Amino acid sequence: MDAILLQILNGLDKGSAYALIALGLTLIFGTLGVVNFAHGALFMIGAFCAVTVQRILNLSYEVVDETQKDFLGNPLKVKATYVESWFGPEMGGAIIDWAVPIAIIFAIPIMILIGFVMERGLIKHFYKREHADQILVTFGLAIVLQEVIKYFYGANPIQTASPEALSGVANVGALFGTEIFYPVWRIVYFFFSVVIIGGIFSFLQFTTFGMVVRAGMADRETVGLLGINIDRRFTIMFGIAAAVAGLAGVMYTPINSPNYHMGMDFLVLSFVVVVVGGMGSLPGAVLAGFMLGILEAFASMNEIKSFLPGIDQIIIYVVAIIILLTRPRGLMGRKGVMEE
Amino acid sequence: MFGLDKKDTRMLLVVAILTLCAPFILNPFPTDSAMAQFNAGYPDLMQRFVIFGIFAIGFNILFGLTGYLSFGHAAFLGVGSYSAVWMFKLLSMNVVPAILLAVVISGLFALLIGFVSLRRSGIYFSILTLAFAQMSFNLAYSVLTPITNGETGLQLTLDDPRVLGVSATADGSIPVTSLFGLEMRSTFEMVVGPWAFQFNAGYYLCALVLLAAFYLSIRIFRSPFGMMLRAVKSNQQRMNYTGLNTKPYTLAAFVISGMYAGLAGGLMASMDPLAGAERMQWTASGEVVLMTILGGAGTLIGPVLGAGFIKYFENIFSKINDTVLHNWFNFMPDGLEDFVVFIVHPFIGKGWHLTLGILFMLVVVFLPGGLVEGGQRIAKWVKGRKDKDDSSSATKTPAE
Amino acid sequence: MGILEVKNVGKRFGGLQALGDVNLSVKENTVHAIIGPNGAGKSTLLNCLVGKLIPDTGSVMFDGQSVLGRKPYEINQMGISRVFQTPEIFGDLTVLENMLIPCFAKRDGAFSLNAITSVPSETDVLEKAEAMLVEMNMADKRHMHSASLSRGDKRRLEIGMCLSQEPRLLLLDEPTAGMARADTNNTIDLLKEIKEQRDITIAIIEHDMHVVFSLADRITVLAQGTPLVEDDPQNIRGNPKVREAYLGESA
Amino acid sequence: FTNDPTGSSVTLGFNVPQTGPYADEGADELRAYQLAVEHLNGGGDGGMMNTFSSNELQGNGILGKEVKFVTGDTQTKSDAARASAKSMIEKDGAVMITGGSSSGVAIAVQGLCQEAGVIFMAGLTHSNDTTGKDKKANGFRHFFNGYMSGAALAPVLKNLYGTDRNAYHLTADYTWGWTQEESIAAATEALGWNTVEKVRTPLAATDFSSYIAPVLNSGADVLVLNHYGGNMVNSLTNAVQFGLREKVVNGKNFEIVVPLYSRLMAKGAGANVKGIHGSTNWHWSLQDEGSQAFVRSFGTKYGFPPSQAAHTVYCQTLLYADAVQRAGSFNPCAVVEALEDYEFDGLGNGKTLYRGEDHQCFKDVLVVRGKENPTSEFDLLEVVEVTPAAQVTYPADHPMFAGGALGSCNSGA
Amino acid sequence: MNVKPDFSKNANAATTAPAFLSVWDMHAYYGESYIVQGINFNVHEGEILALLGRNGAGKTSTLRSIARTGSPMVTQGEIWLDHQPLHLMESHEAAAAGLGLVPEDRRIIAGLTVEENLQLAQIAPPIGWSIERLYDLFPRLGERRKQEGVTLSGGEQQMLAIARALARDIKVLLLDEPYEGLAPVIVDEIEKTLIHVKEQGMTTILVEQNAVRALELADRAVILDTGGIVFDGTAAEVLENAELRAEYLAI
Ligand SMILES: Nc1ncnc2c1ncn2[C@@H]1O[C@H](COP(=O)(O)OP(=O)(O)OP(=O)(O)O)[C@@H](O)[C@H]1O
Ligand SMILES: Nc1ncnc2c1ncn2[C@@H]1O[C@H](COP(=O)(O)OP(=O)(O)OP(=O)(O)O)[C@@H](O)[C@H]1O
Ligand SMILES: [Mg+2]
Ligand SMILES: [Mg+2]
Fold first, then answer.
1. CA E55 to centroid of ligand 4, rounded, Å
2. How much is the mean pLDDT over chain D?
3. Is A333 inside a domain boundary?
């Protein structure tokens, strides 16, 4: 029983990660109709925002410690961070400890800016081009972004820990009168996702912004003839999508140490989630994200793996195939979006 | 000639000459010069050029004509490779049965996947094919290891049965692939002054197959069937109300292109009898998509160009390292040399991906029709300089 | 018995009864016009005939066979061709290729894997397509991309494509809308001629009364999903109910 | 024979992952190769050439020929690795190929070198199969393997955690993972441990939470992570997140074991590795003369200590050169003969033997632990035990290595 | 020789007529095909101008050039609306400046309901008729406000396209074949509406195949042929000039 509850929690948690990544993608891909292979790269850049903030906070000067030796036998240079020397070890230590949450504050403007630049500089010319061309250009961009990050940060994962106060486990089972321990940061991630998803939903639902962008997608020219500057709205949409991707990345770093190709790892999966959810549907993408997350969590249970070996490796694809064959436009897709 | 019109015949001849003379064309630099690094005329890479050319030509029959973007074509290539290697393990080292089986099995596999996937169109179709291919890849990598030998890839061993051949040669090694006794790896080297040119049996087999595949694809493009496929891409609704059943058309295109992929996979295994699961991964499927678009989707020659372009980078650029750079630039003063090497360094060797990414972007931005358009622009420019008053360019002919 | 027998056909869209209870009989080798106010259900009715929509109730018989439950391409192969209200052509193909496709469909059936011969060697089909282009007065545009035709031309092309299939029943949904007067007259003449020569039955939807009255042998007036009257053109013109509901003063 | 160097120089092929998840390891290997070439050609301080028990190498190249090298990118894919190796052989005339950072790739390239008639010095490859069922006459491995990890770890684990333990295995679902799982399970079961469950995880997995969670309720008190690279970094991080290390099961502290460790991985997993045990081929903190010499020349040139991958490939380059020198010929068959059953010392792991029957090398294996208080970013592991070679040696016909045949050496002639 | 007037200042009635909308020497291309070949004309405030010509004459292209849609591409020329230089604007700026186009293929936006299609027109100022008032004008639209716009019948879509233009406060209304597909009674209705808005000072350019009908409504007429102007004068002149009518309008 506990095992099942735990897997449901895992599923929700995985699902919230998938949903958040897919949400950003569906804004660009499902709504603006751009097959954005660089979305994974945006996610990755978000994660590296956290790495960078951590590095900046850890910027340090060297003090030679004669009592210790380094690997070549020379006196050891001990590093002392500026932050700690400015704010004192107590306060400074706390600031460094909270690097990931602090990174969120920096990541939002940075990601929005990256989104704007990407859209204005490149993607803008590709709305009317074929999907094939969009794939080529965004894939090229993804490679470039990835290689740039690799050039500066290397290929190995870089550990980025959550704040001390938010690591460790909490007893979620207390709610049900049992004991189920679950990592605190994952719970934080889940609620963070829910807040972001809710925020984006209400923005697109309670304002006309979403409708206008959808209309612009269907027929840019006519929307322009109605006096609407659709270009600007597309840019904003792109900025939002980039920010969502980036935030997903920042928050993900304590769960898994980021590396330069983490975006590519998630890319295919996020396309699958978006399409299974149905093109052009935000709720669809979120629903599909949670659904696939939960199914994946269950498929990796020993009880299931023992009579369906390897099912956890293909469960997502199997489910995707079944859904797409039974529901022509995924879970909640809109008619006519990218069907030709 | 060959039932083709003049333009197509000319193109076929050009391709024939290029592939048959590739050992010369691809080795323009003397072996000992600093530029020898850029020579691509060695058997393995030449084989890769044509094999991936075949793969891309086949992909283009589906994508270029019908607009259905399959993201799982590598699965057929993988299936072809596995079938061929199994043939080498069980039957004999002759490449003919291996290639035939590769084509047949991948055709059947394509029939199955196509039949299901083609129930949807657009992005939904793409994701279905992707899902099937990723499933195949994941299973091949793990659960199906008895058939695929997992991560290592299916290899020949000394104790394979090979009922029509020998398990091991007299001196205790694994026999090599051959065409009725002509070993695929046999290479004749011709040394002309400082140049060395390699003529490899396997390459010429691949080249001939490429020419046949290319010829067939021209016929398909110019046939009523090809026209129907373009019509499907243009307006399915009209097709249906014109009394045509689009499903068999797209399915036939899917199967044909799957068989091309299987052919490529079979050839690949014939040149180098190993079949790795990564051949089926989505990145491999993505690669053929990129090749086709980069070269020019829907054109005849484009996919071959795209395939060559990407493979060249993968194999040549990735092998340039700092030492090589220092060799090239050592005519410069030391400081400048270091500086130049420092600037170029991120783009070569392990940075070859970066260069490739930048080139992808440059090509799509500046040559919307892919490399073929680049060629056309050059041709037009040359022609335009020859006769300035040729104004017939206004009508847009379907590119080749 | 007409060649086309529509019996008790009804179709709902959600809360809207688009077709109530339609009975219609079209006699062989006549031109039968269907007119009526906007949103009366004319196009919906046509959609039910070609398999684009499946009616909720009723039956549709063509030449003694039911068309219901058949795929659009099967219905077309039975001999029913349709021209759409907004032109449906192969925009990426040239005008000539557009014309070739129905000719191939006529000759080879619903599917043929004819991947080896080249299009230019199919002389019989080519000739037929060329002849049709000449007939439609579009021969000089044969190598244009059909997407870049003006709209009147697109419509003429579509009519030509349907005619080249030599259908037994031709369904036209506002074929002359947006066509210049001269071409409208040409089209009227062409349709008349074809009807005479080819033993063809035509069902036409039109708002242009000039076209309706010059062509139709019989007219059905549809209003709110049900036939109001069916009669000869003269009687329709005089019918006060029709004048009020549909024609207005301008008739 | 294939690519007989006729000129004044000889070309070696360094085939390492330059892109993909193991690119950093590949980069470190390349650095070591360059260093080795420099030393062979008489540059630098000579590194381990000075401590090597064989004194054949003179610093004038190999057999008097200047050593040149070409590099290639394996992308950690069998196909790409073979393509790259082929181009080195066909285009650049390499007489020896070395490198790699994964067993699948190593085995694939080893097969190719066998067919082409060149020597293959496997780089970082830990699967039993490389010198087990996929062994090849033209290939040699300097790295240790899954069996040896198990054999080295078992006594240490026994001392630390006792003989009454329930182990839960999480294993990357591909050949390397399976052989390691088999080896470790066998070694620990021999101690009296009980294996509760062996669970395969997809190679592509990034979040292991749904595999970690069942561990909590399984009654296991030890978790063995048969993962490498990014997989290991993530699974270990996840295991720590789920509080496994604070748990007490069956009255004992819950423990995690990572049988194959590397410093680069330890860096990725950060603080999570503290106190976790595993085995490694070599570590820069070893105090023997050879290791010290190597660390000194590598550290001086690049500013940080070498990884075990770097050490392995450096040794292999020297060993190959030495074998050619001793054989007096580049002929692969002569080199094979010179390397088979060759015993030497001074390359870091004490006395080392290249066994003729399967071309596996036998030397001391290190058991290491994540350091509690690292003094620098390189000082992440500490050596707890140097397991003597004798203890990890197994008979060539051991069932875990059965199947396949070495065949005979191929010179390509 | 034409002399280019100065549009930017309050134009002097003595030199040029006080044109409200002026098109000066406009050239436009679709890719490489030269479509609008240097045309000049003026429209005065509050007048209805009929723009006539055969299929493919370039009427639609002219309207689209004025509305700054970007296709065809205007390579040369100036367009002034009430002293504002339209030729320097993008389509949304031109729309904000007071231009409204009812496009020939209606361009109802897929995925939006009837009401959303109308709301969309009122997002950017200036706002014209209220949505309720538009429903009064076209009751059929009011009944179908929640229906997806593209599933409307042809005529209903045309109503929606016109309503959408009126939903904005525009100075110049460009109508591309607004009567197409509409029942005769509705055409009468729309004609009345056009007269009504004209009385309120709206300027209109009307492209219509039914030339007689258009000319009866219009004050002035411009006739296009192969991208150039062949006639510019009062509507009455065209109606009287049989030669002109026969040659360019086939009536
Ligand atoms: N898919 C649909 N969903 C809901 N309502 C629909 C749908 N299709 C058509 N309708 C409605 O059904 C009615 C009949 O439409 P239809 O297109 O048949 O009219 P019509 O007689 O052809 O009119 P017109 O002359 O204007 O073209 C219209 O009111 C239309 O809004
Ligand atoms: N997208 C396009 N690309 C290329 N040429 C085009 C395009 N659209 C129209 N044309 C050409 O431009 C010319 C003028 O077309 P336009 O649509 O302006 O004519 P029109 O006067 O509106 O005709 P109609 O009465 O048929 O609507 C035609 O010859 C047409 O073929
Ligand atoms: Mg209609
Ligand atoms: Mg027009």
1. 7
2. 91
3. no
**pLDDT of B226 over the 80 cut:** yes
Per the rule left: phi > 0, alpha: psi between -120 and 50, beta: everything else, D303 is left
Grouping H, G, I as helix, E, B as strand and the rest as coil, residue D182 is: helix
Average pLDDT over chain B reads: 89
Q: Which chains touch A (3 or more CB pairs under 8 A)?
A: B, D, E
Q: Which residues of chain E are within 8 Å of residue A223 when distances are taken between CB atoms?
A: 109, 120
Q: Does the residue A319 lie in any domain?
A: yes
Q: Is-cis flag, bond preceding E126, omega within 30?
A: yes
Distance CA A190, CA A251 (A): 10
Ligand nearest to the CA of C146: 2
CA distance B381 to chain E (A): 17
Nearest atom, ligand 1, residue E140 CA: 29
Strands D352-354, D361-362: parallel, antiparallel or unpaired by DSSP?
antiparallel
Q: Which domain holds residue B265?
A: 6-29+39-282
With cut-offs at 50, 70 and 90, classify the pLDDT of residue E2: low
Best of B29, B151, B176, B316 to mutate (most D CBs within 10 Å, chain D): B151
Q: How far is A334 from chain E (nearest CA, A)?
A: 8
What would the pLDDT profile of D17-63 be if each residue is shown by its tens digit? 988 888 888 999 999 999 999 999 998 888 999 999 998 888 899 99
Number of domains in chain A: 1
**Backbone phi and psi for residue D3, each to the nearest 5 degrees, phi listed first:** 55, 45
pLDDT in tens, B14-67: 999 999 999 999 988 888 887 888 888 889 999 999 999 999 999 999 999 999
Residue C86 buriedness (CB in 10 A; 0-12 / 13-18 / 19+): middle
End-to-end CA distance of chain C: 32
E58 lines ligand 2 (CB under 6 A): yes
Q: Is C206 on the interface with E (CB under 8 A)?
A: no
- State the pLDDT at residue B327: 79
Report, as an integer, the average pLDDT of A237-241: 93
> What's the mean pLDDT in A144-172?
88
CATH number, position A296: 1.10.3470
Identify the H or E element spanning D70: strand D66-73
The answer as to whether A287 is a domain residue is yes
Gap between the Cα atoms of D357 and D340, Å rounded: 8
Instruction: Tell me if B307 is assigned to some domain.
Output: no
- Say what the alpha-carbon torsion angle A229, A235, A241, A243 is, to the nearest 10 degrees: -130
**Which residue in B has a C-alpha nearest to residue E33's C-alpha?**
B394
Which domain range does residue A139 map to? 2-51+99-326
Nearest residue on chain C to E249, judged by CA atoms? C181
What six digits make up the tokens of A56? 């900046």
A77 in any annotated domain: no
- Burial category of D143 from C-beta neighbours within 10 Å (exposed 0-12, middle 13-18, buried 19 and up): buried
B56-60, D286-290, D390-394, D404-408, range with the lowest pLDDT: D404-408
Task: State how far the Cα of B220 lies from the Cα of B65, in Å rounded to an integer.
Answer: 10
Q: Using one digit for the tens of pLDDT, what is the confidence trace for B240-253?
A: 999 999 999 999 99
- Is B341 within the bounds of a domain? no
Dihedral, C107, C109, C110, C111 alpha carbons, nearest 10: -90
Protein residues placing their CB within 5 Å of the ion ligand 4: E 60, 104
Considering the domain boundaries, does residue B136 fall inside one? yes
CA distance C114 to B254: 15
* Closest-approaching ligand to the CA atom of E145: 1
- Which amino acid type is present at position A250? V
Q: Which residue ranges have their beta carbon within 6 Å of ligand 1?
A: C 13, 16, 18, 36, 38-44; E 144, 147, 151-156, 181
Would B374 be classed as within a structural domain?
no
- The highest-confidence range among A217-221, C96-100, D98-102, by mean pLDDT, is C96-100
Q: How many domains does chain B have?
A: 1
| 8-state DSSP, D240 | H
